[in-house]
Amino acid sequence: MSVSAKYLRLPHAPNCDCSVCWSRIATAKPAPYPSTPCDQCRPASCELVDGRWQVTPRFTCAKHEPNARPPKYWHVIHDSGKPTPYVPIREPFELEP
Length: 97
Fold this sequence. Notes:
The chain is extended, with a radius of gyration of 29 Å. Helices cover 16% and strands 10% of the residues. Strands 1-2 form a two-stranded antiparallel sheet. Strand 1 (45-49) and strand 2 (52-56) form a beta hairpin. It has helices at 3-8, 19-28; strands at 45-49, 52-56. The chain is built from two helices and two strands. The relative contact order is 0.08.
């Protein structure tokens, strides 16, 4: 048995704050937004009926449908107009004083 296999089987301390223990605690908590927010909404599903797959698409009611517009904190800081295309200069030049 390798050293890493022995290490992986060691129990963690009760107050351990490593990433493994944190992930275990975080995934045990319920999701802040469940997959089915209300009675009208339903997740997509797929089931085998008479040897054929029956797919039911998801349905989200108008109340829980995501907004088409970005959140309010998205805004333009400075609009300098149309972008200027980059045109490379093929011949050397000198700056005039």
